[in-house]
TrEMBL record:
Residues annotated as domain F-box: 26-78
PANTHER family found in the cross-reference section: EXPRESSED PROTEIN, F-BOX PROTEIN INTERACTION DOMAIN PROTEIN-RELATED
Pfam families xref list: b-prop_At3g26010-like, F-box
Species lineage: Eukaryota, Viridiplantae, Streptophyta, Embryophyta, Tracheophyta
Annotated protein name in UniProt: Putative F-box domain-containing protein
PROSITE patterns for the chain: FBOX
Signal peptide: none
């Protein structure tokens, strides 16, 4: 049997192959110089490249080399569309079990496939995402600790996070997850508690991947921004170094985990943005809609779909405000600006039941596209559809989902040129395996 190829990579082995190589009629792929092998592998789909790492040690070393990553990024930037691939981590809650599945959408965005995240150590609940990393936790009862895990479903790598402090009688109102360009990760938990009758505060618990520890700080909230209406079904949005949590009525809480107001007492930038106004009466504007927060073409947007009598879609965009009456993020005054209001009566006419659609997600590339959870009636299975708000057309993209489930969708984004993000090295409970076949 042929011995394994030398895995040492030198600058000489990465130079361009000689012209005489192309005159060879029969050549074993193991005999190819590293430079030519890199040119072949960098043209393959990401999932297939990751599987190639399991072929032999020499291929694994080659694909893990920084030169390969740079060549692949250069090739894909020059030859492929840089738009993000819209995907979702669909988390369903059956009656007796919890399952987390990755819903991948094909390149034509006309079909989706569900894949179970079955490589994890136990059945976990998805609580947040950042690009291609997923934050999960074990559900516990009472005042027990919650155990968190970070995973990348592409590489099947996962790591257990040191447990946070035990929860006492405080309500968890938000969990967020973010990473910066230096691969530093932060997990943020917002806990509400009343210190005094007229003094409402948020406790911020934050985990740092560099220290491997949780730290605590307290944020005083303006009375009009009491965070109890934070939408548990709306996952935190990580964008441009800030974590955003959406409250009922469009109230927005923004926190910058990588910036400190005071390094001595761990005070973080935490600011509050008022909700937009739809112009509807208060009683109508309180219960008859669903909100969705996301990023489209580099802008933070919120969509609101009213479904009681007519289907009316509002789209707001977060922009800087010159006024001083609105709290901002990072020292910049921000406010919601109405982008458009659209009537979707044609979609409404398809079903005579109230609330047949719920907003799930925005398309990151196409402002005319939304993703909706459809539930025609209490006896019909649910599914996910893609909606063109201009033509009022729907495209079925998902298989039927179990009837007796609640469904949440977390954005899961991976650009064509981006290499899968490694999970942080926390020094314990790391695990990885070869990518799926």
């Amino acid at each position: 049997m042929r011995g394994e190829k030398d895995t040492t990579i030198t600058s000489d082995s990465l130079v361009a192959p000689s012209q005489s190589l192309f005159n060879t009629i029969f050549l074993n792929i193991c005999d190819l110089p590293n430079s030519l092998l890199i040119e072949i592998l960098c043209r393959l789909p990401c999932k297939f490249v990751l599987r190639c790492k399991c072929v032999c040690k020499s291929w694994s070393t080659l694909i893990s080399h920084p030169y390969f990553e740079s060549r692949r990024a250069l090739y894909l930037r020059n030859n492929c569309d840089n738009e993000q691939i819209p995907m979702f981590v669909v988390h369903s809650y059956p009656l007796a079990d919890n399952t987390a599945e990755l819903l991948t959408i094909d390149s034509n965005q006309t079909h989706a496939e569900l894949r179970a995240l079955d490589f994890l150590p136990s059945k976990l609940v998805v609580v947040a995402t950042y690009n291609d990393l997923i934050l999960l936790c074990e559900k516990t009862l009472g005042f027990q600790r919650k155990y968190y895990y970070i995973c990348n479903p592409y590489t099947k790598q996962w790591v257990a996070v040191p447990p946070p402090p035990i929860l006492f009688p405080q309500q968890e109102v938000g969990v967020g997850f973010i990473r910066d360009s230096d691969y530093r990760c932060r997990i943020v938990r917002l806990l509400e508690f009343d210190a005094e009758p007229d003094d409402f505060r948020l406790k911020v618990e934050m985990f740092s991947s560099e220290t491997g520890k949780w730290i605590e700080s307290v944020v005083l909230c303006p009375k009009r921004f009491r965070p109890h209406p934070l939408q548990q079904s709306a996952p935190a949005l990580a964008y441009n170094g800030t974590l955003y949590w959406l409250g009922r009525g469009g109230i927005l809480i923004g926190l910058e985990p990588f910036k400190l107001d005071n390094k001595n007492n761990h005070n973080y930038h935490c600011h509050f943005i008022s909700g937009p106004r739809s112009g509807f009466p208060l009683f109508y504007d309180s219960y008859n809609y669903t909100d969705c927060l996301g990023v489209c073409r580099g802008c933070v947007r919120m969509c609101r779909l009213y479904t009681l009598t007519r289907f009316i879609l509002f789209v707001w965009e977060l922009k800087e405000d010159s006024g001083l009456e609105v709290d901002g993020v990072g020292g910049k005054k921000m406010k919601w600006c109405l982008k458009e209001r659209i009537f979707l009566d044609q979609i409404k006419s398809q079903y005579m039941v109230p609330h047949p659609y719920w907003l799930l997600a925005l398309d990151p590339n196409d402002e005319d596209m939304l993703y909706l959870l459809r539930r025609p009636s209490s006896s019909d299975p649910k599914d996910i559809v893609k909606c063109n708000i201009r033509t009022e057309t729907l495209i079925d993209i998902s298989p039927k989902l179990p009837l007796k489930t609640d469904v949440e969708a977390f954005p899961f984004m991976l650009s064509w040129w981006r290499w899968p993000t490694p999970v942080p090295k926390l020094g314990h409970h790391n695990n990885s395996s070869c990518p799926p076949q």
